[in-house]
Design a protein that fits this description.
Helices cover 36% and strands 14% of the residues. It is α+β, with helices and mostly antiparallel strands. The strands form two sheets. A seven-stranded mixed β-sheet has the order 6-5-2-1-7-8-9. It has a two-stranded antiparallel ribbon with strand order 3-4. β5 and β6 form a beta hairpin. α9 crosses α10 and α10 packs across α11. The relative contact order is 0.20.
Length: 343
């Protein structure tokens, strides 16, 4: 088993080294499940865009990827040093480590916090500096910065991938490098899903739309995935595929299924029952709206991947269990996890 793991790791490294030459350019919507208490209250989750030929020169500057670089994930965040969007290399975004072979086999909250804090100290001090006052001087700050790295410890992630061209990637980089990057996050009408919709519009104009019927006009990650899937169905010449990145096994609580706006109301007794009592007509209207134009399920046949596009793919695997053989365990020092407000 040790030799097999070493061979798989070597293949991953080799593929990463050749990826800039062999792989076609792609953009993928990452539809990320909600987690934690906030995720239970607001189960719409998080949306980000993965670009396999665009890399992060810094969290606020994009550049073309070189050989061996698997790309970056870009998304809109709330209250991270005043920026509207930030870009993080793919492997750190998913696992808070820089090398594929250092992805842990399992994780608990202490290991997750340690890996995130180490990456912060190495690369993100300008965005999330050490605490300067009080009893926690020199320690990791609280806040939203924890959502920049280690997403796969907290959530299961579904990917919806479409092809791009070098010219489109250049246009994308120029547009986002030249425009002002000033945060104005709004949960209702200027959220992470709205940002993903804007990014995809650079490559495929009008491919993603709001749903004023079943989402009340609020853009949700699930609606972006639904629109993109429908667009691909209407354009059979477009190379479109799906994948799923499992949540890292361990003691960290599992993420919740992702829902749309009315879907969350209709499927939750704590919302729909009181609404039905107070206003049965409105409740019935919500149910009809959801059943008519709000249903969309995560793809069950999505390829299970640890690193999108690399030979760690476990096509058709039913869970993350088989992925453990290509992960190398890391020690878990005792660290108190930094606080954050998960989506």
């Amino acid at each position: 088993m040790g030799k097999m793991r070493a061979c798989v790791t070597a293949l991953v490294i080799l593929a990463l080294a050749m990826g800039g030459v062999l792989a076609r350019a792609d953009a993928a919507l990452l539809m990320e499940e909600p987690y934690g208490e906030f995720g239970a209250f607001n189960p719409t989750g998080h949306a980000a865009i993965y670009l396999n030929h665009i890399c992060a020169e810094s969290p606020t500057r994009l550049r073309p990827c070189g050989a061996g670089e698997p790309g970056a994930v870009i998304s809109r965040y709330h209250k991270i040093d005043g920026y509207d969007w930030l870009a993080i290399p793919l492997v750190p975004y998913l696992y808070a480590v820089e090398r594929v072979e250092d992805v842990p086999k399992t994780a608990d909250a202490a290991l997750e916090a340690n890996l995130r804090d180490q990456y912060r100290r190495d690369h993100l001090l300008a965005l999330a500096p050490d605490v300067e006052k009080g009893k926690k001087v020199g320690e990791a700050p609280g806040g939203e910065w924890t959502q920049l790295v280690g997403a796969s410890y907290d959530r299961r992630i579904y990917g919806f991938q479409i092809q791009t061209t070098a010219e489109e990637d250049e246009q994308f980089m120029n547009q986002f490098n030249d425009n002002r990057n000033v945060g104005h996050f709004n949960l209702l009408f200027h959220n992470c899903a709205d940002f993903s919709r804007t990014l995809l519009d650079v490559y495929y104009p009008h491919s993603v739309h709001r749903n004023f019927f079943s989402d009340l006009g609020i853009t949700t990650p699930k609606q972006v995935a639904r629109s993109l899937t429908k667009y691909a169905d209407q354009h059979p010449d477009l190379k479109f595929s799906t994948f799923m990145i499992p949540q890292v096994p361990g003691s960290i609580k599992r993420s919740h299924p992702i829902d749309g706006v009315l879907e969350a109301v209709v499927k939750s007794k704590k919302y729909v029952v009181p609404l039905a009592i107070l206003n049965p007509e409105v409740a019935a209207g919500f149910v009809v709206a959801y059943l008519t134009d709000g249903r969309f399920k995560a793809p069950k046949d999505a390829a299970v991947e640890l690193i999108p596009g690399e030979p760690t793919t476990l096509t058709g695997a039913p869970s993350a269990a088989g992925a453990e053989d290509v992960r190398r365990p890391l020690p878990a020092p005792a660290v108190t996890p930094a606080s954050a407000t998960p989506q």
